[in-house]
Amino acid sequence: MVAIVDSINLRPKGLGVRHVQTLLLFMAMLLAYSMRVNISMAIVDMTNEKNDTYFDWSYSIQSMILSSFFWGYVVLQIPGGILARRFGGKMLITISVSVNSLISLLMPILAQAGGWQMVIVCRTLQGLTQAFIFPSMHHLVSQWVPLEEKGTLITIIYAGAQLGIALQLIAAGFLAEAWGWQAIFYTDGALGLIWTIVYLFIGASGPEDSKCISDEESLYIRTSLGRVEEPKVLKTPWSKILLCLPFWAAVVGHCGQNWGFFTLMTEMPTYMAKVLGMNLKQNGELSSLPYLAMYALSFPLGIMTDVIVRKKWLSVSNTRKLSNTIGLWGPAVALIGLSYIPEGNMTLAVVMLTVSVGVNAGQYTGYMLVLNDLAPNFSANLMGVSNFFANIISIVAPLVCGVIIQDETDPGEWRKVFFLASAVYFFTNLFFILFATSERQSWNEDENNDIETKEQEIQEK
C-alpha cells in the first residue's frame, strides 16, 4: 500500500512525456488501421469501369485481396510477442508503420504493373509487418502507462484503431472523387512516413530510454509500475496456458468477434455500393458512422464496467461477461434486423449497421480484459496466441463471403452473410459466458518470486 501512495505522491502536475508517447501510439494505431482498411474502399473505385484506370476483377478475386492482409498478419502473431519482449516496442512498431507506409505509396504503381497478384503480395507483406502492432503496443503500454492512469491512457491508445477506420472511410470517398483511387494510398503512405520520422526522434521504448523525460516523471512511472529495481524474467508456462479452459473461452470470444467485425469491415463498402446504390463519397461517409459510434461508445462502456466493479454490483468475471454480451449479442440482433429491412430503405439499413458495429465496443472490456485478468505477467503471450487464432478467422470470413455472394446486387445473398455472422456472434459468446472467468490463475506467479505484481496488490487493496 505504501508503494501505491508513494507513486500517487510522486505524480507530476500537468502533461508529461508519457502523454506525448500516448499521443504518438494513438496515431500509430490510427495510421495502422487506416492502411489496414484502405483497400476496402479503394477496391470499389479500382473496379469501377467508368474510371480511366480500373481493374476487371471478379468478386472472388476481390475477396482474396481483402483477406490477403491476414495471410501475413496471422503468421507473426506469436513470434511478434517474443520479439517485442526481446528488442523493445519502439523498433518493431517503427518497422510496422514505415513498411506499411512505403507499400501504400507504391501500391498504385505495383497494382498496374503486376495486377491482382501483386496487390495480394503487397497486402500480405503489410499484414506480416502489422503483426507487430499489438505485441509492440502491449510492450510499450507496460513500460509507459502508470497503473493510476491505465484506464484513460490505454483507452485513448487503442480507440485510435476505430477512429482510424472511420476517418479512412470518410476521407477515401473525397480523395477518390477529387484525384482518383490512387490518392487514397498516396495520402496514407505520406502520413505514415511523417509519423515515422517524428517517432524516431521523440519516441522511446520506456522512460529509461527517453532523452526528453524529467527525472521526476521517470521516477513516478517506474515506481507506479514497480520497476524501481530490475524486474525478474519469468518463464512462460506454455503447457498450463494451453490447458486453461477460461483462456480458450476468451479465444473463442475473440474468434467470434473477428468473424463479425471483419466481415462488416471488409464487405460493408461493397454492400453499400451494390445493394444500397451509394456512390463512393456517400459510401465512405456512411460507412464511417459505425466506427465513429464504436469509438464514442468505447469510453462510456469502459467507465460503466469500472463503476460496476467498484460498486460491487457484479463480480469481475460477470462484469466481463456482461460487457462481452453487449459487444457480441448486440450486433447479432442488429444483423438479423438488417436482414429484414425492406429494399430501398437506406436510412434504416445504415442505422442497423451503425448499431451492429457501435455496440461491438463492449468487446474491449470483455474477452480482451479476461486475457489480462487471467495472468497479467503473461498477457502479451495470451494475446499473441488468441490473436493468432482469431486472425485465421479474419482470413476465412471474407473468403466465405466470396463463396456465398455470387451476385453482389442480390439482397438475398447478403442476408445469408448477415445470418451467418449473427450465428457466429451468438454461439461464440455463449461459450464465453459458460466457461470464461477473471480469476487470477495460479501459474501467473513464479513460485520462487515472493514479490507480487503491482496490479495484484492494487486489486487486493
From TrEMBL:
Annotated CDD domains: MFS_SLC17 (cd17318)
Key words, A-Z: Ion transport, Membrane, Sodium, Sodium transport, Symport, Transmembrane, Transmembrane helix, Transport
Iron-sulfur found in the keyword field: no
Pfam family, one: MFS_1
SUPFAM superfamilies the record matches: MFS general substrate transporter
Assigned GO CC terms: membrane
MF terms (GO), sorted A to Z: symporter activity
Residue ranges constituting the Major facilitator superfamily (MFS) profile domain according to the UniProt record: 20-440
Membrane topology listed for this record: Multi-pass membrane protein
Keyword Transcription regulation among record annotations: no
Transmembrane segments: 23-44, 64-84, 91-110, 155-175, 181-202, 241-262, 288-309, 321-341, 347-370, 382-405, 417-436
Localisation per UniProt entry: Membrane
A GO biological process held by the record: sodium ion transport
General function of this protein: May be an inorganic phosphate cotransporter.
Family indicated by similarity: Belongs to the major facilitator superfamily. Sodium/anion cotransporter family.
Record-given protein name: Putative inorganic phosphate cotransporter
Provenance organism: Pieris brassicae (White butterfly)
Lineage, opening ranks: Eukaryota, Metazoa, Ecdysozoa, Arthropoda, Hexapoda
